[in-house]
């Protein structure tokens, strides 16, 4: 049996945080930022319902039919909480619209928000409780990965995205079930056994299994783990540490904070990023640089070459990928040809074979920079050279929407409206956003009605 000192036990520290999160007040800045991420995730779910991943996900609703616990966005039906949460998570990561946590390398919103929505609807929780649960989920997912060391576990073949979203969704569920530290300890034990997902998601060409790994699998597993914990199932105590614990099996290679260092509810949502561009996170900085160069850019037909530097780890993720929304070369070429990007152009698969775009794509060179990697942050250096040898260059140090250069409420709202209105219409979109921006004031019944507006 594993002997532990509670004062130095990561499991005990996390369980205590989860108990305290059920009643801890949220700072005003955390309430505002949490609403930004909830609005952004709703926009990702609603727009995702019309993409190939969303259509595929919604085909599974018949097989998952059961108790009408929670809204399934894009379908005129409610499903059991775990199933609605899983489908909504698929929609939230149907493309690259959703948010990210840069330092811990996962997408929190696509799992944590759908998990919280489903339980709030089933168990009649208020908007204020949803805000607290979402903030707690972001803290937990990010801190688990920081304790493990995200680059290390990725290099060993584990998916940081699956791990962070699992513990984040589980923490949100724990908060809404109002688990005490004893129940939270048992939940953590089940979550450690559910920890799965491989970095082979990088080989997915259709984004379907990627969406499952990043969000849907975690929601399903977390909500089932929370339900059986609530039912009284017992488990191994202190499952994060010790021989055969999560930290031992996954390995710890990070120099970041361990779980025994203090938590402050909402810190990690303040450090999370919302995307200006509906494309893969590592591409954001390059597009910001092109946008900043503006009229100084040469016309697409006079471009001789484009040189782009990204942090080494990020460059490997987006280098000439088959999926349009995570291929840096394709998206940069598309930007130069069209003079910008839209949601529709990013998702137009036919543009992958557009001869004008393909010809320009071949002139774009991406290299990984250890200097940018070591400096940290989401950065890019973009150099564009025309056929006359004229050169323009821009370095983005803080991407728009990241914690170093955050988008204000107005920009988040504008992005959400652009993504929601094609599915919901202008009036329904306005009604939904008005409620989400006032989430802390919604009763359980009002929150249920607000979520129902999203479909």
Short description:
The protein has 455 residues and is of the alpha+beta class. The chain has helices spanning 10-21, 28-48, 52-58, 81-92, 109-123, 127-148, 150-155, 160-177, 181-194, 208-230, 246-250, 267-270, 284-293, 312-318, 328-338, 343-346, 355-361, 370-375, 409-424, 426-436, 444-452, and strands spanning 70-71, 78-79, 303-311, 364-369, 380-386, 391-396.
Features:
2-methylcitrate dehydratase PrpD; two-stranded antiparallel ribbon; alpha+beta; 60s Ribosomal Protein L30, Chain: A; globular; four-stranded mixed beta sheet; 455 residues; 2 domains; 53% helix
Helix content: 40-55%
Query: Kindly, what is the distance between the CA atoms of the first and last residues, rounded to a whole number of angstroms?
Result: 50 Å
CATH H-level superfamily of the largest domain: 2-methylcitrate dehydratase PrpD
- Total domain modules: 2
In round numbers, the mean pLDDT is 95
Poorly predicted residue ranges: none
* Oligomer classification: single chain
Query: Roughly what fraction of the amino acids lie in strands?
Result: 5-15%
For the biggest sheet, the summary is: 4 strands, mixed
CATH architecture of the largest domain: Orthogonal Bundle
User: How many helices?
Assistant: 21
CATH fold topology of the largest domain: 2-methylcitrate dehydratase PrpD
- Order of strands in the sheet with most strands: 4-3-5-6
Q: Give the number of DSSP strands.
A: 6
Order of helices and strands: HHHEEHHHHHHHHHHEHHHHEHEEHHH
